[in-house]
Amino acid sequence: MNRPIGVIDSGVGGLTVAKEMMRQLPKETIYYVGDTARCPYGPRLPGEVRKFTWEMTRFLERYDMKMLVIACNTATAVVLDEIKREMPIPVVGVIQPGARAAIKQTKNRHIAVLGTIGTVKSGAYEKAIKATDSSIDIYPIACPDFVPLVESGEYRSPRAKQIVSRTLEPLKKTPVDTVILGCTHYPLLEPIIADYMGADASVISSGDETARGVSAILEFNEMLSENERPEHRFFTTGSTNSFYSIASDWLGDLDLNIKKIQLA
Ligand code: I24
Ligand code: DGL
Q1: Per-residue pLDDT, 149
Q2: Span 35-60, mean pLDDT?
Q3: How far is Cα 211 from Cα 215, in angstroms, rounded to an integer?
Q4: For residue 55, what pLDDT is reported?
Q5: Helix, strand or coil, per DSSP, at residue 31
Q6: Stretch 178-206: mean pLDDT, rounded?
Q7: How confident is the model at residue 46 (pLDDT cuts 50, 70, 90)?
Q8: pLDDT > 90 in the chain, percent
Q9: How many Å apart are CA 215 and CA 59, to the nearest integer?
């Protein structure tokens, strides 16, 4: 089935999820929507996140996508259930796959969840984890400085180390052995986070786990594509030039089809 898979995010961060999907599923066509003009979603009220996420979903409906991936953790936390209920195609978010992988990984049942203010406030990771194993202890930490840090490009700097240590300091007093990166941007900080947590802790990237989940759903439903040369498309509500500079760098592809769109 060669119809595209829709991937939606508040901006360019969801490209971490899209890239992993392209690696695991090289024959799939991705139509990506990044709402860069209204990014970040992390500090916004749930009502706004809900409205914006529906607008991206409605936009992609005209392209007859076979599946929708909500690549943004904040959007997943607020509207996944509702969109799942109302759409006639499989819809996956980034929270359930990350939660599942962490449950499999933890040995002592102490899991930390790092995310935006919106994701942490929603309690969505706790709900997903507790539904499977209510005996697990969860330590949620809002990391409002991490997204601006990654977007400043300084995610490998001494300042990045400082911000990570300051934010994750409360975990030092806990026996956490597994950390979920519950935000699109955090994989860029993974080396620093893993280093801070030490060799005995595992770090789970929600986006990577989601790509594995997408793969499983497509196989199970016999919906895999056989396209040897998929033509991805990218839609942004912001400047196509700024989108291009980040996306071409991150995806290692200079020939990207990017279009500016208006939502709402
Ligand atoms: N990374 C992200 N967002 C940015 C950025 C970045 N600027 C530098 N880097 N800017 O997210 C957000 C605001 N822009 C977006 C485009 O439209 C205009 C407004 C993380 C991206 C993860 C794939 C650092 C950077 C980069 C290239 C690749 C990866 C990366 F420049 F983190
Ligand atoms: N995409 C968001 C997330 O994963 C991070 C950026 C934002 O706050 O919009 O939660």
Answers
A1: 98
A2: 98
A3: 6
A4: 98
A5: strand
A6: 97
A7: very high
A8: 98
A9: 24
> Does 230 sit behind a cis peptide bond, omega within 30 degrees of 0 on the bond before it?
no
The two three-digit tokens of residue 238, written as one number: 């912001």
Does residue 23 carry a pLDDT above 90?
Answer: yes
Its pTM surpasses 0.90? yes
Rounded Cα–Cα distance for residues 206 and 245 (Å): 24
Q: CB within 6 Å of ligand 2 — which residues?
A: 9-11, 13, 39-42, 72-74, 116, 119, 147, 183-185
CA dist 188 and 117 (Å) reads 19
Longest dimension (CA), the chain: 50
| Interatomic CA distance for residues 252 and 17, integer angstroms | 15
Residue 1, pLDDT score: 81
Dist. CA 184–CA 20, nearest whole Å: 12
| Contact present, 166 and 142 (Cβ < 8 Å) | no
State the catalytic residues.
Answer: 72, 183
The ligand 2 atom nearest the CA atom of 40: 9
Q: Report which protein residue has its CA nearest ligand 1's atom 22.
A: 13
Best residue among 9, 10, 12 to mutate for probing ligand 1's pocket (most ligand atoms within 8 Å of CB) is: 12
Domains and CATH numbers, the chain: 5-93+208-260 (3.40.50.1860), 95-207 (3.40.50.1860)
* Ligand 1 pocket: which of 151, 155, 189, 260 to mutate (most atoms within 8 A of CB): 151
- The average confidence (pLDDT) of the chain is 97
Res. 264: pLDDT tops 90: no
